[in-house]
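A further point concerns the way the authors explain their paired sequence and structure data. Nothing conveys this as quickly as seeing an actual entry. An entry of this sort, consisting of the sequence and the corresponding backbone structure tokens, reads as follows:
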Amino acid sequence: MFNRDQWSEILEALTANWFRTLLTAFGVFWGIFILVILLAAGKGLENGVKQGFGDIATNTMFMWTQTASKPYKGLPKGRRFDFKIGDVASIRDQVPGLEYISPRNRLGGFRGTNNVTRGLNTGAFNVFGDYPEIIRQDPISITSGRFINYGDIGNRRKVAVIGEGVKKELFPDGEEPIGDYIKIQGVSFMVIGTYTKRNNNGDAEEGQKEIYVPFTSFSQAFNFGDRVGWMAITAKDNESISELKDDIIEVVKTNHKIHPEDNRAVGNFDLYEEFNKVNGLFIALNGVAYFVGVLILLSGIIGISNIMLIVVKERTKEIGIRRALGASPWAVRGQILLESIFLTIISGMTGIAASTGIIYLINKMLEGNPDSKDTMFANPSVDLVVIFVALVILITSGLLAGLIPAQVAIKTKPIDALRTE
């Protein structure tokens, strides 16, 4: 039940020397402020780094061929080989737990020559021969028309999905590209869709200067036969591509007569493994933030405990009178604990409010920066769990800070307290 007299006494005790109380409260304020700011900064850095992964499915590996480093079954060391479309079926049949297997071929590349034309307009773009599943592994946003489908694959249709960057260069006057034709190395493809996306290093412009065509028509038009340049392989949600990687590579080695111990013949990049390394890094950073914040907070709690000891010493005669008039030890202990908890929570909540305001201002600044999506820092924030943990820490700290002074207060005998000048 609310006791007005008791709370009036608490406020009077804390404001009797307001400057001393303010300095004491600042320790708790600063500790919780630093804790929240550190956690928000860690989250902002985590968001920025993960933003660099783009929307690509993280439980994915990429695989390509290199040169054999060991002779095997009469085949020489140093030979080159290509994946074949049959490898896709072999992997799917022999390695359970896979969601998508997307073979891919490519024309163009970094600083490539002009390979795409429309009328008098030309450009150098990456052209990918893909299956429809690639849009689930490396998502794009279709802005008009549609993406390639299995009807296009089966019928070897010469159709293309172009990025908005391609559209601007080949259709500079704002013409509608859907249904029109572009020529890729002299072969005509009808545009069936346009898209927008950011590529995996956050470059929006380069990510939209790509063209997707059906894998089968790509192979036919550009004489790739059944060759596969590389594959994107994604595991199911309850599986880890890192655990399936060795089985996948073993299937390919068997198909192409690669020595089982040749670790250089098949190149691969495990995105899931890299993603987990990033997660591990930020778990460690959060741990450091909690450690530093709690240490700073602890120094503030020690300050409150010290000041409460001084307060108890100053009020020794008052405590003696209360004990002589029949106040129970718990009543005296409760009074000291309430003062300690009240001071701790007020200063701590002020620290939380101040840090939240700083985080809000930082987010507003990032929103107003058009290049914020290309930085390694995005949307710093703390969730409600962190706030709840902070409140628990504050309440617990307030109890600990007041416990020793409270025990000192009740151990003082009334007769000795009354003699104190």
Notes: The chain has two domains: 4-53+276-419, 105-225. The first strand starts at residue 60 and ends at 65.
